[in-house]
Structures are given as C-alpha cells and as structure tokens.
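Q&A log
Question type: sequence-to-structure
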Amino acid sequence: MKPTPPLRYLPPRCLLAIAAAAALISSQNVQAGTQNKKAKASLDGSETVCPLGTFVCPPRPDNFALCRPNGLLEFYDPFLSKDSSLRDTAKTYVWSDHVESPDQVIYHLTGHVKTIRADQELHTDIADYNSDTTDYDARGNVHYQEATHLLSADHIVGNTSNSTGVATGNVRFQILDSHGNGTAVRGEMLDANRNRYSVATYSTCDIGRHIWEIRAKKIDTDENTNRGVARDATMNVFGLPLFYTPYMSFPLSNDRASGFLYPYYEHTGYAGYQFRIPYYFNLAPNYDATLTPRYYTLRGAMLSGQARYLFPKTKGEFDFEFLPNDLYNDQKITPTSINTQGQQRYLYKFSNTTNVGGPWAVVTSINRASDQNYLHDFGDDLFTISTSLLYSSMYLYGSGNWWSASFGGDIYQNVDPAEPNSVEPYKRLPRATFNMDIPFARWYDVGLTSEAVSFHKFNMVEGSRIDLNPYVDADFQGAAWFIRPKLAYRYTAYSLDAGYQNYNAYSPLSAGTASPFTQSNPSRSLPIISLDQGLIFERSTSMFDTHYTQTLEPRLYYLYVPYRNQNNLPLFDTSLMAFDDWMLFAPNQFSGADRQMNANNLTAAVTSRLLDDGGVERLSATFGQIRYFTPQLVQVPGTAATHWSGSDYVAELSSQLNDQWTMSTEYLWNPNTRKTELGTFTVQRRLGFDGVLNFSYRFRQNLLEQYDISAVYPLTDRWRLIGDWTYSTMDKRTVEAVAGVQYEGCCVKVSVVARHYVTGYDGVIATLPPGQIRPGSNTAVMFELEFKGIGAFSGQTDSVLRRDILGYQ
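Response status: OK
Response body:
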C-alpha cells in the first residue's frame, strides 16, 4: 500500500485525486511519507538532482518545466502583493480615464479602469461603484487577480467588503498554487476563500492546450481546505471521455485531507488478481488512519489498514492485514503440507516509542504473521518474499553523557515456507545491557560493556548468560598521527537449565552420543589487548590539470587474546562472521558472546586519498591483511582450527573523479586456498539531468555470483527508457528483470513497466533434493498514468524502480 501523508512535524505531500466510474463514487489520493515527499509544484520546475552514488533518491517532484514558459493568463501582474490578510485595512486605489459621480456615492468609471486593494487588482473597460455598499459592476474585458487566483470575464458584479461576486461571459480562471486553470459559463466568488464555477473545465495543462481536463456541471474550490470538488464530472483525455463520476475531489495544495487513495490493480501467482482501494482518514494534525479493502481472486476479501499517531512523549504506527477466510488450497507448495484453505490469515506490525521520564524511553517493535507461508502467498515484491524471519522486540532504553542501558527482550518468527521452524533464533527473554565510557585525565577512558540474557528455544539447550567486558583505553593523537592502546578483560558465565546433557550446540543428541556440555555453570575469562596506530602524510599533486591533496595513511593494529577452550559453551546467538574489510580491525570474528577468538595478530593496512580543493574525496584506495602469529584455534562446532599465516588480502578502491562518474570495488583473495573469497564492482554514470547507467558485479565464494545492469536513459526531455537486469551465475537464471518506458509532458506522466522476479519455491519441497530446489518466478506488467496535480492510476512503479535502480529519481 502506498504510504499515507505524514503527521504534523513531518514534511507533507500533495493529496491527489482520481475517479473510476465503474468502481467507485469518488477517489482521492494522498501522496506522502518522509521518504516519499513530493515537492510543491513550482512554475520554474526546479528540483534537486540525486547525489552521485546515492542508493535511494528522493522522488521526482511534480514540476511544470515542460509547460509553456510564463504560462499564465496574459494579465498577470507579478508585482502585486501576495498577502491577502491586508485586505481589511488596506486602502483602495482607483484609476480610470473618466469618472462621473452625481451624488459622491455612486461612481461611474470608464476607460482603462483599474482598482487595487492589497492583493486584489481589477481591470475593466467600464465600472460602477457604490462607496456606501461597496457594490461594483464591471463590464468589458474584466480581469481580476488576487493572491491565489486569476479570473477574466465579460461581466462581473460583486461586493468588495464581502469578497463576493458573479462573473459571466467567457469566464477563464487560473489557480496559481496548483497550476490549475479552466473555463466556465459562470463563476461565483462565494467569499474570500471559496469559488464556484458552473459548466466548467479544469486542467493543470497549458492554457488552451489541455491534453486532459475535467468537464463538470459544477466545480467548487475552497482555500480553507485546499480542495476542489467537481460534480457530474467527466475526465477527458485528448478530447475523448475516459470516465464519468458524479463526484470528484482534487487538491489545490500539498495539504492532507480525508478521502480515497487511488485504486491499485495487481496480479501474483499465489494470490491471483487483486484490487485495492484505500481510504485515508485525516483525523487530526497528529494522528491519522488508512483502511484498505482488498479483493484477491484466488484468496478472497481482505481488510488492511494503518494507524499513526504523534504526541509529545509518544509516537507510533500500527499496520495490519486480515483475511477472514482463505479460499485457496496451497497445500502443494509448502514443505510441511500446511493447508490454509478456510483459515484466517493475518499480518500485523506495531512500532512505538514512548518517553517514560528523563532519559528513559520504551521502544516496541512487534511483527507477526498468522503462518510461515503468509509473505510467500501475499508478498508482491522480491524484498517481501525474500524475508525469512520476522523480528519483534520491546526494550526500555536509557542513556546519559557516559552511559547507556536497556532492558527487554527479542523473539523471532519463521516466515520461510522452505524451512522448518527450528531455524528460528533463540528467544532472548529477558535481556539487559549496560555500557559506560568515562573519560579521565586528558587521553584516557575507562568503560564497560555488559549483557545479561536468558535464552529459550524448544527442543534445544536453554539457559542464561552474563557477559562483562571492562576496559581502559587511550587516544593519543596529533595532526598527523594517532596511537590508541586498549586493555580489556572479558568474563562470560552461563547457567544452563536442567537437561543440558541431552543436547549439542545445534540439536538434541542421538542415543549413545556424548554431550559437549559437561557443566551446568561453565564460564570463560580472558584479557584482550590491542594497539591501534597510524600516520597521515599529505602532499599537493595534480592530475588532468586539477590540483589535489594526496594522503598516505599507513595503519598497524595489533591484537592479542590468549586461547581458551570454549567447546563446553553453548551457541545461543553466536556464529562465525564472513570476513570483510571492517574485520581487519575487529577484536572478534564471531557475532555474539558465546565465542571469543584467540589472537596474536598484526593487521597492516594503507590508505591513500585524493581530495580536491573543496575537500571532496575524489579517490580512495585501501590495501590490508591480518598476519596470524598463532593458529586460529577457537571455532564453531564442526569447523577445524586454521593454521593460516595470514587472512584474506583486502583491496578497496572508490572514485568520483567528476560529477558524472563514480566507481567502487572491493576484492578479497585468500592466499591459503588461493581463491577469491569476495569481489564487488559498481560503476555509475550520470546521463543528463535525470538519466543514470549502473553496472555491478557481486561475488561471494560458495554463496552468490550476480551481475546487475540498470539504466534510466533519457531519449528526449520527455521520453526515457527504464531497465534493470539481475542475473545469478550460480543459479543460471534471471533473479529480476525490469523493462519500461516513461513519458512526461507538461501535465501528464505515463509509465509502462514489465517486471519478472523470483517469488519463492514451487513444487513439493520436502521431496526434492537440495540441488533441485529452485525458486519460482512471477511476471507482472504495471501501468501508471498520472495527471499532474490530480493523481495517478497504480502509483506502484516508482517504489519498484527506486529499489532496483541505483540513483533512480
């Protein structure tokens, strides 16, 4: 579902409206979200280019740069005041060629009549004005302007005190804030903020060049609500009727308002065709809600929704999806033969942050599904269906200048239909942490990181663990050097529950097998000593006739940790991490506290950078390796000790030599196995204002090898091609492919995007050998038609393209 507009204190986004004659009475669309903010339409079409190399770019705002320059009604006065609040106290100034007033009350003005009061300006050939009643009657080439509107007609009668009036004959109007304009048989100024147009048209296209327009029996505009309402309306495109609706609402600004969001149509292989039509409730400036009825042709009717709130000491969001009765029998695609036909299916997500006083806050995140097949069945994108675990937690957090603490717990839910529930990590209930870092003297700090946690998992060894890590460190540094010694002591103790002898690290023991857990209260203690030091050299240099500052930054990191046999310790939340560049300077190669590596290691690394005169890093290169003086004896069960003399060689290079090109690469080579462990390469080329070309390659030994090419290629200032292709060499198949075309004119955008992507696993997985388990796939075609300043059909293409294409905007 498209995100709804943000609450107060968050940047608002424009409310869009669109109607579908056969499906609904009216439809309105609110576009918003902190990450999806659309800028207010501007006459000059200005917008910010996405920074080079940025992964997620802001949406391209509606702009009217492709419209006719200065496309305003010909009498617009740019120097007129824009402050309508001055009307009640402002003087009225009148000019004309001739003035007649027999009684000094009624004035008859002829020839180039012009009146100005604050933000109001009126031009006409002939005008009669009553100074007592402030009634006026203007005839012939009447032109009226105020802060937000322009209006022209053959005849206008009205009252200046009440800001009322009636215009007839060749009525034309323009709403300045929304680029909207139209014509009418009759126009009425109901008061200072409301207008009504009868037998009218409305469009945001160039005046006189309407690609699309709303033709309605009546159009009301209200600046109090910043909404327009059309009754008995027909949407016409190129002069042909597209649909009819008895009621249509559309925005006059970026403010939020209650109403229908645009309808959405989609097809997936496991839910069938779906239709959804959200309704947004603008309940208050600091809380709102959205309800979205859905219908799946294979699954049935579903209700989903979202509620958000923002108060001085608490903020949060609740999302849910509920299907009361699943109509589809999907028994064949699940490994455990789960039949969800006739069952309730649901997904809910709740997040909340509440300040409970002083530095303390409760942070809650709960994510649960009715069953492990839910995301597989109802997910409509690669990210959702690739999610294998739902994480939930609740913590009380506190922090001060030198300390931080937390108390709470974590649980997980398996939502991968290809895996048994035993893959779920341990529940950590309860869990407490306390960390501190206190500076003393000039260079020194004394600190502590600590954790106490209880672990629970069905049919596995359970127990509690406390991990204490006090330390003393220092940071000696100058302009061109640093030395950072650190001395720490790590103590970890366990209290295993009864029956611990029946398990090993990963599963229950079979008969006659000895358990590695020989004590109910095992512990481990050891010192950790490290010394991090480096130098920074600089020199001036030039390249391609450009001056740079080049740095040379050698760095040495020594780590000493004595060996402790830890085979009698359980593995609650610990695993061996894949080697990466950041591990060159890490004190442990294991996540979690159940294992602490032994070390007598020296890391040597060198980095060189090129900085331009503005301080921008144009080039950075790093090379490094860890040298092991003793074997790596501490390992997870099933892994032998390593006697390598050195780690992988790590090489990194990134560059941004100009504002069009950026490149980054990382390479890990294992000198012991003489194999490449990891390789990545990404290059991006900017094409014009909003075009981009990306190529990337990703390789991890025995895990993945993928190529990805994506592009946004501008053919002209109005047409651009969209494409993305991700190919897995190991699977010998396309992971995801996207191809499309986009057109953007003055007042309309059209996108047609085809997407093919991996969806999950087909077949009876339990009966297939691992080498034959292959992901299924799905193909979808998305069509989006957006009338600028009004709304869009579908509206889903942007979210897909932003995720798939680096730098898309």
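Response note: The radius of gyration is 34 Å.
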